[in-house]
Amino acid sequence: MITSQADDLDSRVRAAAMTWLRRRCTPEDPIVRRDELLGFQFEGRTFPLIDNQLGIRKPQGMTAALSILTTYTSDMARAPYDDAVGSDGLLRYKFQGNPRHYTNVGLRLAFELSVPLMWFYGIKQSIYLPFFPVWIIAVEPEKSQVAVALDDAQRHLAIDGTASQIERHYAERITKQRLHQPVFRQRVIQAYETACTICRLRHRSLLDAAHIIPDRHVRGVPAISNGLALCKIHHAAYDQNIIGIRPDYAIEVRTDILEEIDGPMLKHGIQEMNGHRITLPRRRSDRPDQTLLEERYHIFRTTVYT
């Protein structure tokens, strides 16, 4: 009887929480604040979706863990994602201290029962990007961690050692598309206070997180210091070497573009930006790496003048 009651509470809470997140987190506003997660209302009472101090939320009365949380850390404190992905391309989440702690037991039970969880990924202090549903698909006690699937397709992939090369590439692609790219986008846009660094346009749906060094390159890491918040016009202009950004943060427009006569977008949106400086994030650690800017600016100059 106790088990059936716990199972019923478990399924009701998960369904209610994920329904609320789908309504709350839209493409225009996909992030959620810590106070919202702590103040979630379930059947007339406050039922936090995250633990106030721990990374794993396993509520009393529920059979398995409900959610996991990754705390925001700056680029300076930790290289992004270095220890989060296994050789099979699947994400890993570490146990909290003692493997016998009730939260870690809750993760194991989430695996055994194949129940969906929510993963709240920190993109700024007390602000999270939610991923749901996710599943625990393996427990690796020797490494004090679990393997996490971001979608239903990843749930059926082989774990370390048995995955084929095709499966590994597929898992890596899903991990990049479903976690790394969205986290990078939101962290960069938050750092630039939801505004284009060139023109200050503030419409989130028209903003991109542009890489200074493209992510296909070894040095193209998904770090805020390798990113710029750009509106879609200026992102395309930057990628096409119509606009360059110097290491001193000054904007340079290609000479032939400056000589063109077109409409008001070219005149006011691009030509008049020449010589202006980009707007920098408040936090020094979030500002674009000048070494990376210099490397990218060299490509701009080489492409334009050769």
* Overall number of domains: 2
Oligomeric state of the chains?
single chain
Shape: elongated
Q: Give the structural class.
A: alpha+beta
* Beta fraction: 15-25%
Q: What does the radius of gyration come to?
A: 22 Å
- The helicity comes to 25-40%
Low-confidence stretches: none
**Strand elements, count:** 13
Largest sheet, in brief, is: 7 strands, mixed
Number of helices: 8
Distance between the termini: 77 Å
Chain-averaged pLDDT = 90
Element order, helices and strands? HEHEEEEEHEEEHEEHEEHHH
Pfam family, one: HNH_2
GO molecular function: endonuclease activity
Protein name: HNH endonuclease
InterPro entries: HNH_nuc
Structural summary, described in words:
Helices cover 33% and strands 19% of the residues. By secondary structure, the chain is an alpha+beta fold. Strands 1, 4, 5, 6, 7, 8 and 9 form a seven-stranded mixed beta sheet that branches. It is elongated.
Please describe the structure with a list of short key phrases separated by commas or semicolons:
8 helices, 306 residues, alpha+beta, 19% strand, HNH_nuc, single chain, HNH endonuclease, endonuclease, nuclease
How is the topology of this model organized?
Layout: H1 2-24, E1 32-33, H2 34-38, E2 41-42, E3 45-46, E4 56-57, E5 67-70, E6 91-94, H3 102-113, E7 117-124, E8 127-140, E9 145-149, H4 165-191, E10 207-211, E11 227-231, H5 232-239, E12 243-245, E13 251-253, H6 255-258, H7 264-270, H8 290-304
Parallel strand pairs: 5-7
Antiparallel strand pairs: 1-8, 2-3, 4-5, 6-9, 7-8, 8-9, 10-11, 12-13
